[in-house]
Recover the amino acids of this structure.
């Protein structure tokens, strides 16, 4: 549906995006995830037409997109701070896109009602945006963008200004809305949890380059790089030496394939368990470690354990009450995922 | 928090200043407008004679109307110059913005009088402009209407007050969040529609402030008509000046001043309400 081909963008001498190629399928919810300064918002603004690429092309539904001015693209944006017109009422804000296209007043009326009903804001139709809460402004911004029936909706950190509870609620509504309408969503966020919860696929950006593009489950289970493994969820990065088919990392030893030399493995905290909970099985590795810290978080708790020699590992277990002392732990060697630097 | 004594002490100087140099003169002017002059001496006898004279002699009303006409023309001309300039600087000047901004401000450093005399040299019958026109054989005689006419007054005042109109409009345009402009484009509006539907409405407070500056400052101006206005370009402030000066009729001059003051106060109240109506947070 949308195809970004070899696109780069520089502001002066600063390269913000470097040779990005990305495909988005029709009806897909794709998230651009990255730290601030990774170029995710710039990529979004290039698709919207607010910036011009320094190199590369953007195509949408078989037509060239990057040569069109923003007002001729069948793309609409939900802005980070909503960018509602302060001099117009909620109704006029939502009607804006239809009004500038000289659509008849009766049709506008009907479609505005429909759009406001979709985001449950009918009763606020005559309010001024400044009188609305953040969540309500968010809904109006969504209705205003969707009323033009875009092929692609761009969302620039739309939930970052909301408090935690409201954010969860809006996440679920956004997802339901996207499923219901079947519109392609290109969503920008720096919040990996949000990206995992909402997306069909995640495109992780790092310093203007794509680090990995994959579904949330895939990217979590098989991170390609150490950066991805650390950015998506929590992990233990194990810097090892492989020698004669054995990976050695401090006190940890487990058999592995691959040539000898240095290697990095990612081992998720939840992949490590108490040895007492697991029957001895082939393909597992055991180690003893001293409990240093315990962080309780409701259903589970996170342990920080010292394997000796200053090597710290994080272990996530289901909640089981205060612990102390030395314990034996076990992990399946298949869960130690080799990653690139 | 500050103590009561401290608050009282710091508020005394400004209160004294306003009282002595603003309220007291106004009160004196107001009182004078109800007194009369007999044999060159002011008689402290309360009456409405001055206001009766003011509205019965057509010359005063005529000059007052002409003054308002000139002020309105100046306002219109400086808006037509100042708004596009401010719009260009704020939205399209890019890296040259700072430099161009200084160019607009620099004329304010030059004395009003100097600029007035400069225009005299340009517009006079032996002046630069007439010389140029005759050199091109566009005219054979010097064009007399260039100097000593209401036209000349409007021209000079427009030149002087355009920066005053530019500044508040520029400030208002700079305060328009750029995402709003992007949102408008995003929703399908081109540049013209975006200007009319978003930028212009949001700059109205600045536009009103600028227009008020131009109108009020022009209304009370007496230097431009003195320098380039001639008899046909006389404005109400010149009348007041001559009444307080050569004619030695302070009470009538005070009555006219009170009238001008009332016009200006009602205008300010009106624009303040309009500005509130068009201010959004």
């Amino acid at each position: 549906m949308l195809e970004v081909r070899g696109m780069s963008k520089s502001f002066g001498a600063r390269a913000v995006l470097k040779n990005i190629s990305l495909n988005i399928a029709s009806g897909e919810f794709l998230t651009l995830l990255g730290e601030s300064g990774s170029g995710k918002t710039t990529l979004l603004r290039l698709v919207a037409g607010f910036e011009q690429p320094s190199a590369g092309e953007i195509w949408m539904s078989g037509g060239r997109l990057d040569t069109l001015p923003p007002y001729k693209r069948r793309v609409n944006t939900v802005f980070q701070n909503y960018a509602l017109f302060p001099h117009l009422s909620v109704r006029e804000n939502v009607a804006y896109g239809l009004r500038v296209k000289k659509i008849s007043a009766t049709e506008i009326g009907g479609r505005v009602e429909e759009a406001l009903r979709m985001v449950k804001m009918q009763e606020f139709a005559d309010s001024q945006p400044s009188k609305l809460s953040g969540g309500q402004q968010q809904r109006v911004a969504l209705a205003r963008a969707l009323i033009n029936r875009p092929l692609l909706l761009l969302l620039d950190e739309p939930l970052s200004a909301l408090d935690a509870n409201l954010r969860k609620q809006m996440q679920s509504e956004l997802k339901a809305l996207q499923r219901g309408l079947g519109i392609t969503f290109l969503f920008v966020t720096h919040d990996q949890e949000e990206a995992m919860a909402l997306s069909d696929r995640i495109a992780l950006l790092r310093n203007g380059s794509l680090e990995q593009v994959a579904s949330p489950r895939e990217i979590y289970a098989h991170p390609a790089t150490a950066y991805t493994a650390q950015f998506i969820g929590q992990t233990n990065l194990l810097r090892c030496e492989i020698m004669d088919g054995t990976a050695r990392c401090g006190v940890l030893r487990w058999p592995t394939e691959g040539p000898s030399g240095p290697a990095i493995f990612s081992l998720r905290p939840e992949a490590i368990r108490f040895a007492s909970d697991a029957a001895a099985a082939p393909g597992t590795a055991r180690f003893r470690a001293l409990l240093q810290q315990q962080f309780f978080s409701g259903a589970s708790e996170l342990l920080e354990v010292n394997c000796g020699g200053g090597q710290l590992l994080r272990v996530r277990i289901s909640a089981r009450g205060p612990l102390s002392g030395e314990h034996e732990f076990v992990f399946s060697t298949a869960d130690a995922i080799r990653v690139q630097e | 928090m500050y103590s009561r004594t401290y608050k009282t002490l710091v508020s005394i100087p400004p209160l004294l200043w306003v009282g002595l140099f603003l309220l007291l003169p106004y009160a004196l002017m107001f009182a004078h407008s109800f007194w009369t002059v007999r044999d060159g001496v002011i008689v402290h006898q309360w009456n409405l004679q001055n206001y009766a004279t003011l509205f019965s002699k057509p010359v005063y009303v005529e000059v007052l109307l002409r003054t308002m006409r000139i002020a309105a023309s100046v306002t219109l001309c400086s808006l037509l110059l100042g708004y596009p300039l401010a719009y260009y600087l704020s939205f399209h000047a890019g890296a040259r913005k700072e430099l161009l901004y200084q160019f607009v401000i620099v004329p304010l450093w030059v004395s009003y009088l100097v600029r007035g005399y400069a225009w005299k040299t340009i517009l006079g019958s032996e002046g630069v402009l007439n010389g140029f026109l005759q050199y091109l054989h566009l005219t054979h005689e010097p064009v007399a209407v260039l100097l000593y006419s209401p036209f000349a007054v409007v021209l000079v005042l427009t030149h002087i007050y355009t920066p005053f109109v530019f500044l508040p409009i520029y400030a208002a345009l700079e305060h328009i969040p750029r995402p709003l402009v992007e949102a408008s484009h995003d929703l399908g509006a081109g540049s013209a529609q975006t200007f009319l539907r978003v930028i212009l409405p949001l700059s109205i407070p600045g536009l009103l402030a600028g227009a008020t500056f131009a109108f009020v400052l022009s209304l009370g101006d007496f230097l431009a008509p003195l320098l380039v206005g001639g008899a046909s370009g006389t404005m109400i402030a010149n009348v007041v000046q001559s009444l307080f000066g050569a004619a030695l009729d302070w009470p009538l001059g005070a009555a006219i001043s009170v009238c001008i003051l009332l016009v200006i106060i009602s205008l300010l109240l009106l624009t303040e309400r309009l500005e509130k109506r068009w201010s959004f947070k």
Summary: The mean pLDDT of chain B is 91.
